[in-house]
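Closing statement on the histidyl-adenosine monophosphate sub-project.
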Amino acid sequence: MLQKPRGTRDFLPDEMEARRSVEAKLREVGRRFGYREVCTPEFEELDLFTMRSGPGIIEEMYVFEDKGGRKLALRPEITASVIRMYINEAKVARKPLRWYYFADCFRYERPQKGRYRQFWQFGVELIGADTASADAEVIILAHEMLKATGVTFELKVGHLSFMKNLLRDLDPILQRRVMAHLDKKDFDGLSDTLANIGKSDLGKALTDLVACRSLDRAFAIAGEIPEKERIRQTIALLDAAEVRYTLNFGIVRGLDYYTGIVFEAFAEGLGAENQILGGGTYRLAHLFGGDDAASCGFAVGFDRVMVATGQTERKTEPVVAVICSEEGRIRSLAVARAFRNSGFRTESDLTGRGISAQVAHASKFADFAVIIGKREAESGEVTIKDMRSGEQATVPLDDAIGRVAADGAR
Ligand code: HAM
């Protein structure tokens, strides 16, 4: 038997309904903040991702050559594509641009709970605003979106300039190596690397910075940094908006394009893969031939959010089964159409079995059975049976629709 590729999943209807319901909540929050949906290709020129996304993600990419010999990659993330699109299509549009997307990404990672090779991100990019208010808006939006999903989460907010200031004398490759140790909380690896380059004196300041949870203390450890005022303003705005967060100056982020504020959210009960959101301010536009548009964004790891919610979303709408004898079959079409036109999920019998066999079958999935036998076909009424209470009555079609509507409104 053929199996699906490793790290991919099939979604049956119950799961898809739960996913669509959470997706709708995220879209609604985005809409209320004035963000509008965009869509980019599933595959892009390989160069788009090799330019700035960083070595981690490049190793994980699905890369292929098309029949014309072009080097392409399945998108491992969507920020680079969105910025490419901004330069191709919307450079002259009114700024700031407030965009969101919901789309699948591909990373060749070792699959485990919450880590897949095909996964979905719900992401947001704010392009062309370079203020504390812009940074704060994006973090407030991230906070609101996660709240709307119902997951229990912790939001951590940091800023790269603290660590960069401590590491300013190291070349970029060494900076990245040191930051990778800190990202993984690999303090032994960190002291080995620092010892090898004769910078052991940095070890204490770096570990203090990672442990520190206060802005004043972080400034004291890292020294004067030019972004100081902007950072203070952003944090003040988050406090005013009652965002629940903790400061964390050890956030490094796996992608290389971030420039300032960085933030991540973690959910309870997910094990090792518990990061459900990541983002920050970044600059990519100038790399792709555009202006140097300041941008800030994040992506929600949608599949991890679904694992964290325990997929508790359940259908709440009533389901109607239309059941008929041969004499009632023609009329059953009009009855089913009337229920559908009233907005109800309505399933017609397709088996041609006897009425009692159809009712027994309907009891497995329907809240109401609407029966059109010989009697109802002649009288023009329908028999409606509440499958949970067992009550039934023969009534005009409109009354039957009214009963289902009253149940749906409860
Ligand atoms: P990222 O942190 O690489 O950031 O991914 C965002 C989220 O996607 C992660 O926090 C995680 O929840 C989820 N995720 C990542 N890899 C997997 C996987 N293999 N399986 C399931 N979920 C996964 C970005 O991609 C940036 N583009 C975010 C961003 C937008 N920054 C600015 N704008």
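The chain is about 40% helix and 20% strand. With this model delivered, the sub-project is considered complete and its resources will be redirected to Aim 3.
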